[in-house]
Design brief:
The complex is a heterodimer of chains A (431) and B (512). Chain A is globular, with a radius of gyration of 24 Å. Chain A folds into 2 domains: 295 residues, ABC transporter involved in vitamin B12 uptake, BtuC (Orthogonal Bundle); 68 residues. Chain A is mainly α. In chain A, helix 3 crosses helix 4 and helix 16 packs across helix 17. Chain A is built from 18 helices and 2 strands. A two-stranded antiparallel ribbon of chain A has the order 1-2. Chain B has 512 residues and is α/β, with parallel strands linked by helices. Chain B has 2 domains: 240 residues, Rossmann fold (3-Layer(aba) Sandwich), CATH 3.40.50.300; 158 residues, P-loop containing nucleotide triphosphate hydrolases (Rossmann fold, 3-Layer(aba) Sandwich). In chain B, the strands form 5 sheets. In chain B, strands 6-7-8-3-9-10 form a 6-stranded mixed sheet, with helices on both faces. In chain B, strands 16-19-20-13-21-22 form a 6-stranded mixed sheet, with helices on both faces. A 4-stranded antiparallel sheet of chain B has the order 2-1-4-5, covered by helices on one side. In chain B, a hairpin with a 2-residue loop joins strand 9 and strand 10. Chain B is globular. The N and C termini of chain B lie far apart (52 Å).
Chain lengths: 431, 512
């Protein structure tokens, strides 16, 4: 057929594209270059930390903040009862942050989630408290209403092409107003016992224990073991595909560390009231959405859209469809948060969920999401949310007043994003 | 000594872990046009950033002498104060401000009380526009101008700052031949007025046409400075300096054996998305397996519009016409359908439309065919890395790992990522829009080699290019496009730059 005559092949010449930056890589063959990557990329813990500074930075910050407040509160922060409290108090913000970080990755935002929490809680309360419907009807209705609101936003953003900021700003007013109308401007309470269990129920005593709940420990042990098995399988698969993996001791250290943290956490819970139901809900959501964003076509397309919208379109990504569904998803999660919040506050109030959107947005940004989109993780947003939670809780324990708390939270958000921008600039300068 | 305006001595600039420039010297004579050549990543832009104060004094080693005195620029304001003005490759104009406002941006003509004197602003702007040969109203917004005219506005802006040394980074990269010729003419006139000019360019034909001397930079070192006034410095001579050895041929040889027809469009018309005019007018063309077909046209002729409208109607509205793949009429109303039908389109602007620059090589390579790596919606991440590695090897993408961010790669390597991405969709026909724009000679040759390999595998390739020698070097057949109409189709044996240019400008002459 056709033949290419290798006359002068400039790619053999030393002059190259990337200058000295990858001079090392190009002098070697492709194989030895990837072998070098195997070493440089992952075995060296320092390289691991610096390479993922944005991500690891947030974990380090979290550990520092927990240690700081544990010291300032004489250990009360990490007491069994208080850990349980943190989970119960901030679960709905974390649920919202899951949906929010996905929107932020795609380059959108949702300012209305606080209003959706209020509206869904109100719908549920009206059905269950006023109309004596069973508890699960309230839950289903709340989630359905939330999903419908998400579809409403998705329609305007994806198919009409309006900026999400405007659409959800309108939604914030609109659905707050509807909440007032649904509730007729009064608070409703109390919910029946089953409904309250969503946010303040515990699974405990199922298999006994002496002064602690063995069931909680068992679930945590299963979770830790599941984690170990899953990362080990991932490692095996990576080795099978001849990809770099971290050195075995480092790998074991990581697994043991995670398992230890999980078990310590469970131990504390077991010594309080057992395994909160809401924690189970949250864990299921975090795992499901964490996997979804990383490992599914849909999740990856969200990143593609946020990274470069035009390139995503020209790569065959159905941008409108993806945008529509991530708003539907946000509504769905806001519905769940609405159920949790109404259950926790044991009723529905016209002002419920005020400013929740800002906490959720802050969690996503503290957790490393980029303002311009394309960057962020569900787990990062969870850590970002927990940083806020630990700070609020710690300051409450110390008796710091509300105004100071607000100042501190504001500064943390500011510094987190400043750090993000500083990092990017550094990355840009080293080009 | 006195006839040297600028001297840079022993410039060394280090980034963390990388020596971008090492002991670079540059001497520019008063009143000359001095070209700087080098492959992408050789350090040209870094050198100019050192010169213009973007990298402040102290962040590099070495001395800069301007007009016989040592200078230390702490920022771009310092360098502009002595008359060194840089015009970057990506134009820095504010689209919705007027031409006059852009010209005096940061340098506003103020009247009494610190308020802007609009009469003075617009009058001076008009004078400056005349001096660069641009007949536009200074109050009209910049967004209404084409790229070529915007470039002229940038030069007018530089002139407003009493420029003594004008630095142009790839001034003609985005311009068509007519606008480029215009710009080069202007540079000659500026030279006659005593303005010294440094020009970075990849287009060697321009350099041999206009430059008085040429400094070649390779891998952060000065290789040589050539005196061009004698006229016997050829393009081949410059390339030898750039790549460090002779380049017998720009274009790899290929024996053409076209097979059956792969893609054909008939009666294809496309309307502008907003304005009431046709951008493609009853076009018809075909391409066969194992064939490289070129589309030549001036900027605005509708080349990209034609390609994008074929590629899942991603441009324009009211698209009419018939699209055949392998002789059968197909529906490709969305990009996804076009990809399914075996069409791939690599855009002319890879940074804006082709790549997710903040993502890694792996995610970019898989982006257009992620479904192939997934079962029930779940992506096999290991398989994905394998595919990306494959692309890296096949295309010789120079990167440490496929997990490196695409934004950190050089232009040529980014283009190879784009090609890997489209090859992974396993297309029957590849439409390559300006596949070698802004990439260096060595990488160009690699891209041509890749194109040859693809047609050898039986793929059909359509190449859109502003550089006629490139089309003549790699195509089997060339269509010319003018004002949305196909004005000619020439087999490579009959095509010359002259007859192509005549066909490309045909419509205009008829109309004018």
């Amino acid at each position: 057929m056709t033949s290419t005559k290798p006359t002068a092949r400039p790619q053999d010449a030393p002059a190259d594209g990337g200058s000295a930056q990858n001079a090392a890589a190009q002098n070697e063959s492709a194989e030895s270059a990837s072998a070098a990557a195997l070493h440089v990329g992952t075995s060296d813990p320092f390289a691991l930390i610096t390479r993922n500074l944005r991500q690891s930075g947030i974990y380090i910050a979290f550990v520092v903040i927990v240690a700081l407040f544990a010291a300032l509160t004489d250990g009360v922060l990490l007491s069994p009862g208080n850990i349980t409290n943190i989970v119960l108090q901030y679960s709905y913000i974390l649920v919202l942050a899951i949906g929010m970080v996905i929107l932020i990755i795609a380059g959108h935002i949702d300012l209305s989630v606080g209003s959706i929490v209020a509206l869904t809680g109100a719908v549920s309360a009206v059905l269950v408290i006023q109309h004596d419907q069973p508890w699960w009807v309230g839950i289903v209705a709340a989630v359905a209403v939330g999903t419908a609101v998400g579809a409403w936003h998705g329609f305007w953003v994806a198919y009409v092409g309006m900026p999400a900021f405007i659409v959800t700003l309108a939604g914030m007013l609109l659905f707050r107003g509807l909440t007032l109308q649904v509730l007729d401007n009064v608070s409703l309470s109390p919910f029946p016992g089953e409904y309250q269990k969503v946010a303040s129920g515990f699974l405990n005593g199922l298999i006994g224990g002496q002064g602690y709940d063995a069931f909680t420990l068992l679930i945590a042990a299963i979770a830790a073991a599941g984690y170990a098995v899953s990362v080990f399988r991932t490692r095996l698969a990576r080795i099978r595909y001849e990809q770099p993996v971290e050195s075995f001791p480092l790998f074991v250290t990581r697994v043991v560390l995670v398992a230890a943290v999980v078990m310590y956490f469970a131990w504390q819970l077991a010594h309080a009231r057992g395994l909160p139901i809401v924690l189970i809900i949250l864990a299921v959501l975090v795992i499901a959405y964490g996997l979804m964003t990383k490992n599914t076509v849909f999740g990856r397309q969200v990143y593609a859209i946020g990274g470069n919208l035009s390139a995503a379109m020209l790569s065959g990504v159905k941008v409108r469809k993806v945008n529509f569904w991530i708003f539907v998803n946000m509504g769905f999660l806001a519905g769940i948060a609405g159920v949790i919040y109404s259950s926790r506050s044991n009723g529905a109030q016209p002002a419920a969920g005020n400013m929740f959107e800002l906490d959720a947005i802050a969690a996503a940004f503290i957790g490393g999401a980029a303002v311009a989109g394309g960057v962020g993780t569900v787990v990062g947003a969870m850590v970002g949310g927990l940083i806020m939670a630990v700070m609020s809780n710690g300051m409450q324990l110390m008796g710091v007043d509300q105004s100071t708390q607000s100042v501190v939270k504001g500064l943390v958000l500011l510094l987190a994003v400043a750090f993000d921008i500083y990092n990017k600039r550094r990355a840009g300068a080293s080009r | 000594m006195n006839d040297v305006l600028l001297e840079m001595r022993g410039i060394t600039k280090t980034f963390p872990g990388v020596k971008a420039l090492e002991d670079v010297t540059l001497a520019v004579k008063r009143g000359e046009i001095h070209a700087i050549c080098g492959e992408n990543g050789a350090g040209k832009s870094t050198l100019m950033k050192v010169l213009s104060g973007v990298y402040p004094t102290g962040s590099y080693d070495g001395e800069i002498w301007f007009d016989g005195k040592p200078v230390h620029f702490a920022g771009i304001r310092d360098s502009e104060a002595v008359g060194v003005v840089i015009i970057h490759q990506e134009l820095a104009l504010v689209p919705y401000l007027s031409i006059a406002e852009n010209i005096f941006l940061g340098n506003e003509r103020r009247g009494r009380g610190g308020l802007i004197d609009w009469n003075k602003t617009n009058a001076e702007a008009r004078e400056l526009l005349t001096s660069v040969g641009l007949d536009e109203n200074p109050v009209s917004p910049v967004i209404q101008l084409g790229v070529g005219k915007q470039q002229l506005v940038e030069i007018a802006k530089a002139l407003s700052k009493d420029v003594r040394l004008l630095i142009l980074d790839e001034p003609t990269a985005a311009l068509n031949d007519v606008d480029s010729a215009h710009l080069l003419d202007l540079l000659r006139r500026l030279r006659d007025r005593g303005i010294t000019c440094i020009m970075i360019s990849h287009k060697l034909s321009e350099i041999t046409a206009i430059a008085d001397s040429t400094t070649v930079i390779r891998d952060g070192h000065t290789v040589e400075t050539l005196d061009m006034s004698s006229g016997d410095v050829t393009q081949e001579r410059i390339i030898r300096g750039m790549v460090g050895r002779d380049l017998d041929s720009f274009y790899p040889d290929r024996v053409s054996e076209p097979g059956p027809e792969v893609l054909r469009i008939e009666d294809w018309s496309v309307w502008h998305p907003v304005q009431p005019r046709k951008v493609v007018d009853h076009a018809a063309l075909n391409v066969r397996a194992g064939e490289v077909v070129g589309i030549a046209g001036l900027m605005g002729a509708g080349r990209t519009e034609l390609a994008m409208s074929v590629f899942g109607r991603s441009y324009g509205r009211n698209i009419s016409g018939r699209l055949y793949m392998h002789g059968k009429e197909v529906r490709a109303r969305t990009v996804a359908e076009a990809i399914d039908n075996g069409i791939a389109y690599a855009t002319e602007d890879r940074k804006r439309y082709g790549l997710n620059l903040i993502a890694d090589v792996r995610a970019n390579v898989s982006a257009a065919a992620l479904g192939k790596l997934a079962r029930a919606g779940w992506v096999n991440g290991n398989e994905e890395i394998k595919v990306a590695e494959q692309g890296r090897r096949d295309m010789n993408i120079k990167t440490r790992t496929v997990l490196d961010t695409v934004g950190t790669l050089s232009g040529g390597n980014q283009q190879k990522v784009v090609l890997s991405k489209w090859l992974f969709t396993d297309p029957d026909v590849l439409i390559l829009d300006e596949p070698t724009r802004g990439i260096d000679v060595g990488a160009k040759y690699e891209i041509y080699t890749i194109i040859n390999r693809l047609v050898a595998q039986g793929k059909a390739v359509i190449v859109i290019s502003s550089e006629l020698p490139e089309l003549l070097g790699i195509c089997d057949r060339i269509y010319t496009l003018s004002a949305g109409r196909i004005t000619g189709e020439l087999p490579i044996g009959e095509a010359t730059q002259e007859n192509l240019m005549a066909l490309m400008t045909m419509e205009k002459e008829l109309a004018g």
